[in-house]
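Memo to structure team: turn this sequence into structure tokens by end of day. - J.P.
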Amino acid sequence: MRLIFISSMPISKLFGEKLDAWWFANHGVDVEFWDISGFFYSGEGLSQYFGGARDYRYIGPNHCIYDNDGSFQKSLHALTQDSVVWYLSRFHRITPDDWIFAELQRKGVRYYLQHFDTLIEPAQIIQRTRKLLAAYRQRYHNRLLQPYGVVGSGRFGRKQSLEVFPGARFISIPSIKVRWQPSERMVKGPYNLFVDESVDYAPDAKMMGCAVCRDPDAYYARLNRLFAEIEAWSGMPVVIAASGKYHYPRDRFGGRPLIYGQTLPLIQNAQLVMGHMSLALDQCLVSEKPVMIMDDPDFTEMKRSGFAAALIHFVAKPVFVTEVDKAVYLRAMSPNIELMKRLVRDYLKEDGVSLSYHSILMKEME
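Reply from structure team:
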């Protein structure tokens, strides 16, 4: 079997490791990874996106980075019907890539799309109506596409897939954004955890030429004062979980332990998790962890707009770091477990889904 991953957007190491195309390669599949982001984004923009850490770009099996020199078109034209394509960057139409799907369909190549980032389903009728209209607009934009299936998670992932691609099968998987199996402890003793989203270097904002924080020095000073109070109230240290998007050249966290690339295992074993709007915070729902979401006076509107789109906001509303007192801390230590379980079913894993994501996809492609 020949499996080809294609992406028209830059793929970070964080997403790539969750996708883990190497698993398929190690299980007898002929895998290729085609990066065509250079067709749609400038070299400067891509350099900014990957510039925060030396190894932030994901490298998959038989990785090809295509430039706009005709070589991708030749590879595309050479595909045969025994190939399977998993297109990673199309559910909503973000880049003008319809011509790629036209060629896949002309050649009869089976292809799949992904909907890993299930959108928040609003409660109010006006917002629900607006969201449904937006889905129908996306259905119109995608009207020429004929995917064999859409890969996604949760009850609402299925609903949204059928709204946009009513003719495609929905392949239900456990979300790849979280860890479903327990991890060994990485820190001795109990600890609080802060899930860092570097305001010094935010890749998405860098690529768009935007800022997420007006005064990073003041932000970190306020954050460290809060950590000291959390440590005093809890009697436990604060550990910092950094994604690896950016490697800090100097200490920003008052000498506290800083661990790169292990956020999900650290969340699984933490006593309290603090953060902003990182997708990694979805792990708190699966692991049923107390969580505190923090805003800051120096966050820009671009940064702050992400709060409402984050799944974790259902169980923890943002509070300014300057307004966290012991009462706020104690409330955070009593999460609504039943709500967390419902959110997992709605957004991260449907009832009855028991196999791993890789096993489900392997069975689907056979």
